[in-house]
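1st attempt posting a full record on here, be nice pls
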Amino acid sequence: MPDEHDTQPPTPEGGSAPSEPAELTAAQRRAQAMAKGEEGPTEPDAQPTAKGRKRKKKKKEKKKYDSILGYLWGEWIRPLGQILLIVMTFRLVAIDWFDVPTGSMEPTVLVGDRILVHKWAYGIRVPFSKESWIIGQWDKPDRGDIVVCYSPDAGDEVRIVKRLVAQGGDTIEMQNGRLIVNGEESDYTEADPSVSKFLDPVEASKFEFFIETIQGDEHPVMFDTDPDERIIRDFPPITVPEDHYVVIGDNRFGSKDSRQWNLDPSEWGQKVGFIHRKRIHGRAFAVAFSLDKSNFYMPRFTRTGRPLD
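the predicted structure (as tokens):
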């Protein structure tokens, strides 16, 4: 009689239990194969046995060049050329910078300032042209704007920076360096000493500094206390033609501007030289950085990023 412990439990279907062991998992089969020194079968749907199993990274193939010139072109010249093209395009149509060589706009803009200019402030121009526009003109320069423009003075058509003080339709007059626009005298109040802090103290002592207010626009100006006799300090009321402007430096007695452009010396103080809207290239809005040319080109760090009013 068989021992009761040798009796196998019936299967769910009522048959006897299978003599073969339960089916092995994929992991168990691989383990057995490795124990026998064989490569275990890999099933397509097998899951990794450990978290974070790293997949083999595909090695990036290195570019091959036929010559040293090809290498230089592919790795250096072409990438640098692309960067240069982007920067030049940005400067031509968006934001440019302008090195200030003279003190005609002191104390607002100093010699050695590198100022940032909105090239698209009034429209988009044809690159490298003085008067041509690409896409119309969506805004007009306004009184008080600091503009970068090409001088209309015959024989001296250089790029300059000046203060716009009158626009088309305005009537402007000057008396002893002080402006009268549309019959309204500009207001002049003594400026805070900080206005001249970037100027040489000895030179600054030769000037008077004021805050000039022209129909609501305020900005600093300076007047030489002992100006040259040839300096134009007065001119009669003059009406500005449409699409033309009068621009003058904040250094009121130290600037070549609308008071002299395209005029015979005999006409100085009697007429004004206007600048056409087409020659205004943009509005200056900030100082990018500044170098003190009188002090071995030392940087003026406190002027970096300074807004221009």
